[in-house]
Amino acid sequence: MIKKSAIWIMAMMVMSTAAVADNVAPGFTSHSDIPVTDGGWSTTTVTNDCSPDYDGWCDDRWFLTLSEAKDVTIGVNDCCMEGDYYEVYIDDVLVYTTPVPDDWAVWPGDPSELSSGQVTVSLLPGVYEIEVKDAAFQDHLDDMQDMCPAGFTVWGNTSTYTGPVPAPEFGSLAIALAALLSAPAFAYLLVKKRE
User: Fold this and answer.
1) Contact between residue 164 and residue 69 where contact means Cβ atoms under 8 Å apart
2) DSSP labels for 74-112?
3) Could you tell me where the DSSP H helices lie in the chain?
């Protein structure tokens, strides 16, 4: 177990500190758009944006398709160096920020100090875009360049919906009301016809 952990730590060290051509970290694949369903998912990913703007957006986006209302848990686990913290967005709305660490660029990162966390939101059926941003890059300075690229894992799963009961659409209400009001009239016509 120790041997595997040491190898994993060394691999993460190389991936998180080495920038290669086109700003792609070795060992990470930029998937761009990843379709996911309510069966759960986990993706090791990276923020490769090492440009002077340091916007910190993750290289990947997840498109979650729900066929029914579900509670969706989305988690982010930092992998390597203290200093990174993450924002989770659903359809461009910030829904969660992992804890902001006290230290910056400490290697190797103490696993208990890495910024990780999860959020659960209730979602109705539909397709949702999930994006993650390394918010530490908003305050990124040139002397912190060794933090880029930043590696982390994004995961998610679903459970039974506990959110508010959605209000029926106007069309559904109109049909139900019409049926309710027409039933007595229809019964009256049947009785009248028999007479």
Assistant:
1) no
2) EEEEE-S-BTB-EEEEETTEEEEEPPPPSSSSBSSPPTT
3) 2-17, 170-194
Count other Cβ atoms within 10 Å, centred on residue 67.
9
Residue 184 identity: P
Share of the chain above pLDDT 90, in %: 31
Note the pTM of the prediction, 2 decimals: 0.67
pLDDT above 60: residue 194: yes
Nearest to 28 by CA among 6, 52, 12: 12
Comparing C-alpha atoms, which of 93, 91, 79, 88 is closest to residue 119? 88
Longest dimension (CA), the chain: 95
Residue 48 near residue 24, CB atoms below 8 Å: yes
- The SS3 assignment for 21 reads helix
Contact 89, 95 (CB under 8 A): yes
Burial class (CB in 10 A: 0-12, 13-18, 19+), 86: buried
* Architecture (CATH level 2) of domain 2-164: Sandwich (2.60)
Domain boundaries, the chain: 2-164, 168-195
Q: For residue 160, with 0-12 CB atoms within 10 Å meaning exposed, 13-18 middle and 19 or more buried, which class applies?
A: exposed
- Which has more pLDDT, 145 or 64? 64
Q: How many residues make up the chain in this entry?
A: 195
- Other Cβ atoms less than 10 A from the Cβ of 48: the count is 21
